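Dear Dr. H.,

I hope your travels went smoothly. While you were away I took the liberty of generating a structure for the chain from your last submission, since the lab meeting agenda had it listed for discussion. I wanted you to have the full record in hand beforehand rather than looking at slides cold. The sequence, exactly as received, is reproduced here:
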Amino acid sequence: MFQGVSTNGTSPYQIQIGAGSVTTSGYAAVGVSTAGAGIATTAYTSGFVTVVPSAITNVNSGSVILTNLTSNTWTAQGVVASTDTTRSNICAGSISLGGALTVVRITTVNGTDTFDAGSVNIMWE
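The corresponding predicted structure, in token form, is as follows:
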């Protein structure tokens, strides 16, 4: 769950998971970003992209759900809105891991933009 999250840049936010270490490729994922009447859809293989910010000042809130589909295959679905604009972001996808899920990382696609506000909460059952 994201609440009031922003970064110091405009690289998309992504969730990466793994078994023992972070899996950085092999995702079958799509990110959809809407702004006003415009819609942009992008395929991603590096992670589940949750937010595509339009400006450094964007503040984002929403949630992403990861579900264990079968054995070590995981799916993602989520909606995160830029609460200071009319932009919403939708993500969905899947990945098969080589073992049981042990790692969750929230980062940016470029790997250099850093989070500078807000909070992220992870819950599991």
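Two observations you may find useful: The mean pLDDT is 93. The chain has one domain: 2-110.

With kind regards,
E. W.
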